[in-house]
TrEMBL record:
NCBIfam families: PRK01388.1 (NF002381). The gene is arcA. Pathway: Amino-acid degradation; L-arginine degradation via ADI pathway; carbamoyl phosphate from L-arginine: step 1/2. Gene3D superfamilies: Arginine deiminase (1.10.3930.10), L-arginine/glycine Amidinotransferase, Chain A (3.75.10.10). The keyword Hydrolase applies. Belongs to the arginine deiminase family. It comes from the Bacteria. Keywords: Arginine metabolism, Cytoplasm, Hydrolase. The keyword Cytoplasm applies. This is Arginine deiminase. It holds the Pfam family ADI. Its main location: cytoplasm.
Length: 415
């Protein structure tokens, strides 16, 4: 039986750079072995990774965090633990078969199959998926018509990128609403873990998987009370607006900067082009540094008591657009937000942006984890006084995500 620890540290985060205390990771497993040249595009990978090496790289990432005093939580273990609770099992099995491809008969036989599993097996199957030929006792028209290699329950190879399916703001957690069909089910897992695991007992959920699309990679906590939200391929303006209302209603932020980003794979999230490495510094793709703009959203004047989360009648105050760097510095109350460039020349910058050179994970002010391959960006970071913890990512990077994407901070010290 699992129990919450009375010694568990306080949870929550109010910045990108406060000392990282606890982080949620997911070690890639059998779900990555499902990737083939036929399905990798649909499953949002740019290739077919060498899984053993990806696991070694991830283990080294987790170790680098642990070596610096960070408590590492593993999503698959938390999931297996909550699957000992009947309500969590029922929720997650229902989510796994909630797929219009299946039809009622196959949904029933899949539910029966999954219900017979112990928590460990069920956690493994919810993540790695269930192929047609692994389903004993499958029935129904859809089952007959499917090919042997088809998935009754598709795998979740992008669970590796724990950043996107939940994000903490203050002491609350936003379970997000992922835009791409290949990732929808991920947030049913994070929602169940936060709702049922004793470790998170009493934590308020700030957002939900059924709401407008919002992904954690688009949410940057620039400073206490100041949240930047990228809108583009993944997060919609509607998602940014809903999050802003909720942050204001719960007094978790006073300003939300809404930042349009190009709707393309290379810039799928705001954290693919910029991340914080110090209280007043970001590493940023230089090609966007001058053109990036922000709309500044604040709670309406004279509303000290915003009534409830979704008081949709409340008009938010919206100003802009302004250059992002100007709007951010002003909201953060600093003279200037310093920018460290990814790359040196435009071609190197483009290559290192693609390889997640901007996607750093700060462990504390001026201490960040980065992929070793981005040598020019890392040298620029060091020249600017940032200590860089280098990790290998040749295989992990084939999913197009770096150290920030692969981590969800659960607790950071306040600055
Ligand atoms: N925050 C991030 O940029 N996460 C990386 C997500 C990569 C994943 N293959 C995706 O396309 O969603």
């Amino acid at each position: 039986m699992i129990a919450s620890s009375p010694d568990a540290p306080l949870m929550g985060a109010s910045s990108e750079v406060g000392r990282l205390c606890t982080v949620l990771l997911h070690r890639p497993g059998p779900e990555l072995r499902r990737l083939t040249p036929r399905n990798n595009d649909q499953l949002l990978f740019d290739g077919v990774p060498w899984v053993d090496r990806a696991q070694e790289e991830h283990d080294a990432f987790a170790q680098a965090l642990a070596d610096r005093g960070v408590e590492v939580l593993h999503l698959d273990r938390l999931l297996a633990e909550v699957l000992s609770f009947p309500s969590a099992r029922a929720e997650l099995i229902a989510a796994a078969v909630d797929d219009p491809r299946l039809g009622a008969t196959l949904q029933r036989s899949t539910t029966t199959h999954l219900s017979g599993m112990d928590p460990e097996q069920l956690a493994g199957t919810l993540i790695a998926g269930l192929a047609h030929d692994e389903l004993r006792g499958g029935r129904g028209l859809a089952y007959e018509v499917m090919e042997r290699g088809d998935f009754v329950v598709p795998p979740l190879p992008n669970l590796l990128f724990t950043r996107d399916s939940s994000v903490w703001v203050g002491d609350q957690v936003a379970v997000t609403s992922l835009a791409m069909p290949a990732r929808h089910r991920e947030s049913t897992i994070t929602a169940a873990v936060y709702a049922h695991h004793p470790r998170f007992a009493g934590v308020n959920q700030l957002y939900g998987a059924h709401l407008e699309h919002l992904e954690g990679g688009d949410v940057l906590l620039l400073a206490e009370g100041v949240v930047a939200v990228g809108v583009g391929e993944r997060t919609t303006p509607g998602g940014a607006e809903r999050l802003a209302r909720r942050l204001f209603a719960r007094r978790l932020a006073h300003t939300v900067l809404v930042v349009p980003i190009a709707q393309q794979r290379a810039t799928m999230h705001l954290d693919t082009i910029a991340t914080m490495v110090d209280v007043d510094a970001m590493v940023m793709y230089p090609a966007v540094a001058d053109s990036l703009v922000a709309w500044t959203v604040t709670a309406p004047d004279g509303s000290p008591d915003l009534p409830a989360d979704d008081a949709d009648v409340t008009e938010l105050a919206v100003a802009g657009p302004q250059p992002f760097l100007t709007a951010a510095a002003s909201a953060m109350g600093i003279d200037r937000l310093r920018v460290i460039d990814t790359g040196l020349d435009p071609v190197t910058a483009e290559r290192e942006q693609w390889d997640d050179g901007n996607n750093t994970l700060a462990l504390a002010p001026r201490l960040a984890v980065a992929y070793e391959r981005n040598t020019v960006t890392n040298a620029a970071l060091e020249a600017a006084g940032i200590e860089v913890v280098r990790i290998a990512g040749s295989e992990l990077g084939s999913g197009r995500g770096g150290p920030r994407c692969m981590s969800c901070p659960v607790a950071r010290d306040p600055l």
